[in-house]
Amino acid sequence: GTSEEVAPPIQQSFMIPKKEINVVSDMAKWKRSQAYADYMGFILTLNEGVRGKKLTCEYKVSEPIEKLVALLNTLDRWIDETPPVDQPSRFGNKAFRTWYAKLDQEAEKLVATVIPKHLADAAPEVAVYLKESVGNSTRIDYGTGHEAAFAAFLCCLCKIGVLRVDDQMAIVFKVFNRYLEVMRKLQKTYRMEPAGSQGVWGLDDFQFLPFIWGSSQLI
User: Fold this and answer.
1) Closest by Cα among 146, 134, 152, 163 to 17
2) In 3D, which of 154, 180, 183, 147 has the Cα closest to residue 168?
3) What proportion of the chain, given as a percentage, has pLDDT over 90?
4) Which string of b and e fits 176-207 if b means at least 16 CB within 10 Å?
5) Among residues 17, 3, 11, which one has the least CA distance to residue 123?
6) In the prediction, which pLDDT does 112 show?
7) In the chain, what are the domain boundaries?
8) Any coiled-coil ranges, and where (predicted)?
9) Cα-based angle 170, 176, 181 (whole degrees, multiple of 5)
10) Nearest to residue 47, comparing CAs of 197, 153, 150, 176?
11) At 186, phi and psi to the nearest 5?
12) Sign, Cα dihedral of 128, 159, 35, 45
């Protein structure tokens, strides 16, 4: 019934994420962690969810999915409102820092539009992943680590119950696809450099997940 939708879940505590992988040996610790299992499970579950499906197929679009698309539309609008500035350097347009400052300031409010009121305490934690998903404002670059942060952002929303199992196709086809469009616009508008490019050894300078989920679609 409706009482289920408004009832707060078992008490959860939230914390501001901080960087824990600083040296190579920390990677082994990360790979043994529950967070790693949850994150990889999320990626692979979505991989199964879109298996053999086309971007144009029909799927359920829930209210949280619509709200996430609206959030991404806001980021897109801010790009239009923050044109590139004239500068001697061809790459890394400094107007990106102005755009990012707006997101840094508004991120928690944006996240609060997606999550229900009884989960408001989660907003500061979840917002960090959103801010980490759009590129680095110091270096004015973007790479697969930023894309991974957006997947972590979506994973967090699943963990707290905002997104559900039947949202799988919409997460990839509607939300993630819109995210890619906005990121491409950021990269082109502000001439962002690739972060941590692997050159010819990498599938792409900027994205990785479309190759995973896209290959599943082709099965």
Assistant:
1) 152
2) 154
3) 80
4) bbbbbebbeebbebbbbbbbeeeeeeeeebbb
5) 17
6) 97
7) 59-198
8) none
9) 125
10) 176
11) -60, -50
12) negative
- Asked if 43 contacts 212 with a C-beta cutoff of 8 angstroms, the reply is yes
pLDDT digits (tens, 9 = 90+) for 195-208: 876 766 767 778 88
Which pLDDT score is estimated for 3? 40
Contact 185, 75 (CB under 8 A): no
pLDDT < 70 regions, the chain: 1-11, 197, 199-200, 202
* pLDDT on residue 160: 95
Query: Is the Cα torsion angle 26, 31, 34, 37 positive or negative in sign?
Result: positive
Cα–Cα dist 19/28, whole Å: 15
Q: Which stretches within 50-143 are classed as H helix?
A: 63-81, 95-112, 123-131
Residue carrying the six token digits 């979505």: 46
Which residue, chain included where needed, has tokens 């040296």? 23
What is the rounded distance in angstroms from the CA atom of residue 154 to the CA atom of residue 156?
5
CA 64 from centroid of its chain's CA atoms: 14
Contacts of 70 (CB under 8 A, 6+ apart): 113
How is residue 31 written in tokens?
Answer: 């790979």
Strand-pairing partners, residue 142, are 194
Q: Which two tokens stand for residue 139?
A: 């270096």
